[in-house]
Structure formats: structure tokens, C-alpha cells
Amino acid sequence: MKYVAIVLFAILMTVLPNNFAEAKGNSPKFKEVTPADVKYVTTEDILLGLIRPKVEQIVQKQYGQKDLVTNFGRVHSAGLVHGFAKHENDDDGWFQIKMSVLVGEPPNVNMDGMVIRVDAPYIGEHRSDNIKDIQVDLIKYWKSK
Question: In 16-134, which residue ranges form alpha helices assigned H by DSSP?
Fold first, then answer.
């Protein structure tokens, strides 16, 4: 008898429509991304995309002009500088990036260079998960001749 009850229960579970609850919240609707939608970028592209506005401000200060056309040339080197805190309350590391930038419009384009210090919000003792906390400071700037 137990066997018949189990078989009947199994048949009923397979025949009856599924009544599963579907959560409907305020979650945003995202378009499904296809391979045709994805553009290949490098890690350098991602890095430069994060610091672009601040690098453009540095170039504008160097030339004393706003609305300069600035394009990134190349990142020559990037690395973590660690252990050079001057004071006990200083954070103990930053990223240092040596890069070139193209400034101006053709035919008057200059290839300038700079070394910048990037204090990311997740380096050091005072950690933050806010990407707006990225600080970019100029270490050295040289204009092409």
C-alpha cells in the first residue's frame, strides 16, 4: 500500500503544473550581452579609463588652457611603490605610472610625458571601497620639444 501511495504521489508531482514562485522586485532589467556587444579592451585601457579625467586636469594645468585635446600615448611602466611612508600616519603604498600623452590637434601635436602617483582607495590602512576616492598626483611632467 505504501508503494502505491508513493507511486501515485510521484505521478501527481510530474503531471501537475509547476507552481514555483517567481520573485518580482525592483531589480533593473539588463539586456543580455552577446559576443557582438563586447569590445575587446586591454588592462591598460581599463586603467586609463579610470584616471583619464584627472590626467586631463594635469595636462590643462601644465598648458594653462582648458579644452585641450588629450589622448593617451602609452603606459611605459606601472608598479606598486611600497614602504616609503615619511610619517607614521601616511599610507604605506601607491601605484606609480610613467606614461606619455598626446596633446593638441594635428598638425600641432606634442608627445608629453609624465610620472603620476595613484593613491587607490584600497591601499594602506584607511581602506575604502569607493572608486571616487582615487587620488592622482603629478610627480614629474616633461613637454616635448
Answer: 43-63
Return d(Cα 53, Cα 76) in angstroms, integer: 19
pTM (2 decimals)? Answer: 0.65
Q: Per-residue pLDDT for the chain (145 aa), expressed as one digit of tens each? A: 766 667 666 665 666 655 555 556 666 777 788 888 888 888 888 888 888 999 999 999 999 888 888 888 889 999 988 766 555 545 567 889 999 999 988 888 889 999 999 887 676 666 666 667 678 999 999 998 6
Q: Is 97 left (phi over 0), alpha (psi -120 to 50) or beta?
A: beta
Long-range CB contacts for residues 57-61, cutoff 8 Å, separation at least 24: 58/114, 58/116, 58/136, 58/138, 58/141, 59/101, 59/103, 59/112
Query: φ, ψ for residue 12 (rounded to 5)?
Result: -60, -40
d(CA 139, CA 118): 10
Phi, psi angle pair for 71, to nearest 5°: -125, 145
Q: Which three cell numbers, joined as nine digits, stand for 16?
A: 501537475
